[in-house]
Amino acid sequence: MHPFRYPVTSRDRRHAPAGYYSYPSYLPFLRDEFDYRCAYCLKRETWFPDVIFSIDHLEKQSNATDKICDYDNLAYVCQRCNGWRLAENVNDPIKHPLGEHLQVDAESGMISALTDEGTILIRGLQLDRPEKNQMRANEIKALQALAKHDKAEWKRFMSYPEELPNLAKLKPPTNPKAEKGIANSASARREAGTLEEPYE
Description:
Elements: H1 27-33, E1 53-57, E2 74-78, H2 79-84, E3 102-104, E4 111-113, H3 116-125, H4 130-149, H5 151-158, H6 178-183, H7 186-192
Antiparallel strand pairs: 1-2, 3-4
């Protein structure tokens, strides 16, 4: 069990809403897109229910004003990563998975770069700040203890949130992937009994 294993498989985004004039309107889709955790530090909603998650622009708004409401330019991140980010631009972590560049030690929580791009990401996203390393170490120890002594509670912390947005009720101006994307959303799969909770 390694709660800080970065994804290594690239994929196309499952959702493609467009036409909103305010980028926060995309938040329910982004939560599902990024599996209800921060794209950068992998912090999960279930670990910190009181922490506010937000939207980050992969290409900064000051550099790409035409992409402010472009869904493919948006990532779901914790507010701390969003506030501390120094990187000028960041590749889409869906199409360019961070597991190709970053690795977290399963015991200590220390992060290391696998590539030059990884070094840039660690510096630009400040993923090796002392509080980040300590957060990872604390979560690893706590989750290891839960896995050993309280499996049900461990599963709760490692699963999706209990309440998931029903994306079928949302009507963005356009959404060419609506049918397939909504069918593959966590809420639809949970309702159908086919959702595999992300225990790893």
